[in-house]
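Quick question, first post here. What does this chain look like in 3D?
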Amino acid sequence: MPSQQTLKLAAIGTLAGAFSGLFGVGGGTVIVPLLIFWFGYGERLATGTSLAAIVLIGALGALAQGGIYGNVHLLTGLALALPAVLGFSLLPARTLLIVAWISQTFIQLVMLAVLQLGQNISGAAADKRAQATYLDAESILHECLELQRHLQVQDASGSDVRTLLELNNALTEAIHQKVKAPAPVTAHTT
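> Answer (accepted):
Ran it through. Tokens below.
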């Protein structure tokens, strides 16, 4: 099974390709921030690593577009590449600062969206728990009111039971008094 680092690199490459294909942005806008965030690379190391990956990606893409589909105008590509190379070689520090700023801003925007989504999910879960707690409390209150009503009925009927018990005790005492009294003497005939 691939290591976690290999899986993260595959995810970065997949995201870079998807963003590049869907939005036409360079893969560096995805690769640099994720190398910084996931691997702890410094800005310069992340930018250089991203450029190395993009060289290979760009070369393969150009070969596929030119060789398979015929969609490459070689002279225009060279006309764009030469000034870009000169500009990069003359101002590498500033270019790195711009790329670092773009990467930092991209990370902030992505994290803002992730945090907002997390808050929305957390808020919905809290609302659901609050509703369940309210329904539980309402159910418990209903049960308590029913129990209170039952106890009030029991208390009211309890006084009747006490009266009956007192009457029963009085009758039992009277019966015992009669039983203790001497029985009348009667003659037996044999």
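Helices lie at 4-23, 28-39, 43-69, 74-90, 92-180.
The mean pLDDT is 78.
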